[in-house]
Amino acid sequence: MRRLLAILLAIGLSRAAAAQWDEPPVAEPESTLTSLARPVWMVTQLHMGVPLLLDVDREVIRPGANLGLRLSVASRFFGGGVHASYQWIPVESGARDPEFQTAGRTPLERAAFGAFVSLDGSNRSAFTPYLQGGFDAQLWRFDESEIVCDFWSCTSAGAHRFAPALSGRLGGKFALAAKRHVFLDVGCEAALSFKGSFFTARRGALMPYFGVGLRN
User: Fold this and answer.
1) Is 27 domain-assigned?
2) Distance CA 74, CA 213 (A)
3) Residue 98 main-chain phi, psi, to 5 deg
4) How far apart are CA 209 and CA 12, in angstroms?
5) Which residue has the higher pLDDT, 8 or 34?
6) What value does the mean pLDDT of the chain take?
7) In whole angstroms, how far apart are CA 3 and each of 9, 12, 71?
8) Across residues 108-122, what is the average pLDDT?
9) What is the pLDDT, as a whole number, of residue 143?
10) Dist. CA 51–CA 89, nearest whole Å
11) What is the DSSP string of 149-183?
12) Is the dihedral of CA 55, 61, 62, 63 positive or negative?
């Protein structure tokens, strides 16, 4: 009797082991976290904007165009980086502002570069709001040139004058891909330019912008 029970027990154990061996492996549940759980990201943002100088005659100093690039390192909520931009604002003749007198349409040009810090909302959703602020070094030019000479000749070149500035941006990133590496960038920038060697008083500006970005 004992021998029979031992044989039956051995058969049962062998069948259980075979059944367990034949069962397909259970797939591990996919993590709910996306690849955005990485601790640090490199972020590239390219945008176009429409700069609007404040407290000016809008019939004379028109809305302009701006092209900018931002490169930053970002964690989930904080980041920092550098940016550079160039803008062009058309100025018509007849400006009542003494700083912008011209005989015809003349561009007000500005190149800027600087550093900024960023505060981001949670980047695990399709929409990520952000707030950025920083210091800018600006080079302005308006209807002015200077003579530049080398060993053999002299030529006329545009004269750019320096003005320091503070800038801030409030915007949002809208994810375009499943892993959200590519996104649309929409927001508005506010800038305050100090007198420096170009202005006679502080100048403010607003600039709505639109662009694209990449996380990698």
Assistant:
1) no
2) 13
3) -65, -20
4) 72
5) 8
6) 81
7) 10, 14, 78
8) 92
9) 72
10) 8
11) E-SS-EEEEE--EEEEEEEEEEEEEEE-STT--EE
12) negative
The mean pLDDT value for 183-200 works out to 93
The C-alpha atoms of residue 64 and residue 67 are separated, in whole angstroms, by 10
Report the domain count for the chain: 1
pLDDT of residue 107: 87
Assessment of whether the complete model's pTM goes beyond 0.85: no
pLDDT the model gives residue 34: 47
Alpha-carbon 116 to chain mean position: 10
Query: SS3 of 203, please?
Result: strand
12: in domain: no
Could you tell me what percentage of the chain is helix, strand and coil, using 3-state DSSP and rounding each to the nearest 5? 10, 55, 35
Q: Which of 55, 158, 190, 167 is nearest to 112 (CA)?
A: 167
Both tokens of 160, joined, read 């750019």
Q: Identify the CATH number of the domain in which residue 116 sits.
A: 2.40.160.20
Contact between residue 160 and residue 139 where contact means Cβ atoms under 8 Å apart: yes
